[in-house]
Predict the structure.
Amino acid sequence: MRLTRSFVARCGMLAISIALLLAGAALAANSEFVIYSFPFAPNTIPAGCQPQGNLTADAAGNFYGTASCGAYSHGVVFKLTRPVPPAKAWTESVLYSFTGGTDGNSPAAGVIFDAAGNLYGTTSAGGTADMGTVFELTPPASGQVDWTESALYSFQGGASDGDKPLAGLVIDAAGNLYGTTFQGGENDLGYCRVGCGTVFQLAPPATIGGAWTETVIHYFFGGQGTAPTSAPILDAAGDLYGTTISGGKFGAGLVYRLTPPPSGQTTWGYRVLHAFAGYPTDGDSPFNGLTLHGRGVLYGTTAYGGSGQFGTVYQLVPPAVPGGAWTENVLYNFNGDHVNPGDGASPSGNLVFDPEGNLYGSTSAGGNYNACVVGCGVVFELSPPAAGVTTWTESILHTFTSGNDGSWPDGGVLFGKNGILYGVSHTGGTHGEGTVFGVVK
């Protein structure tokens, strides 16, 4: 989800004044390369523009994602095909252009694969009630070239259903899809007048071609969390973990767990694992999803808060005794512009680990304040503490300049072939409409 506009509103003229102090600041060494620049939208609209959300890779190393624009100006799902040597250029193809009708409108997150090679995702609008959809893209049959789009579900909003899914999906072994909606569900006048959001399950049909079945498995409400903007993740036991950007004990968002119902029951168990307290000791507004690593430890980011006020990377450690309290550790506080010139601000997208236990991610702001008022964003690495040390060490792998390299990376990063980190920038590039980039760590 793009955070830069809200960041401008939060920082105001402060970022502009500090930017002047950083005119001579040195930027991190450039280890980034662009594999695709989205074209200038008014001239080549069908190709898509301004990508956002996470990339997804197939077994061959090709990338899939979503972007704005398209043949009908309502968004696209795109594929970037890896070049076969001696060719060097990646090839973009649009798998589907949304029409803005019942098929969906404005995808705001990435897509995922099932075992059969079908792609699934969400649109934040469109559908039968114009409140968003869950869609499926089926690969072309033998001898054909076109993917087939199906709207599996149209959200209806109101007290009983979700509205405006801004996040992607997760799939379990049985083929059930899980996701969140930003609003919808019962109104809570103290917190949200259009509903505080939902977690939903979409179950596949018993027979091919039948209707998928949607079930709202949780309605968010006030102090128990509001406005989820990230997809939940699954553990091996089938538990779902996720975040909300607001609500909770302190109103700064929270991390939750949903436990599947016991046999013969239908109600999922809901528990708040951590409520963020905000500046100066804790994070605020966890826009992005979680990463599960090690023995049930959760890792994530907050867009704001922390000692530097520009977001955090945090860790949640499960209790030694089931039912006990989870322990939160802030691994890093982003300082944006005023403590560590060139540092990132407002982390975006999920985190990824390498085999050595280093963490990688991106920030949608910070870094180069000369080229962008709120900074153009960075790709960062966090290294775990050495023996006898408690603090993680941050390294900036790339600072975006808003030039050909891109600006405002909104979707986090993933590891591709040869250990290279890949992601998307919302703007910048050769035509100013965004990029797909790689960073050598």
In short: Residues 124 and 132 are 5 Å apart (CA to CA). The helical segments are 4-11, 13-21. The mean pLDDT is 90.
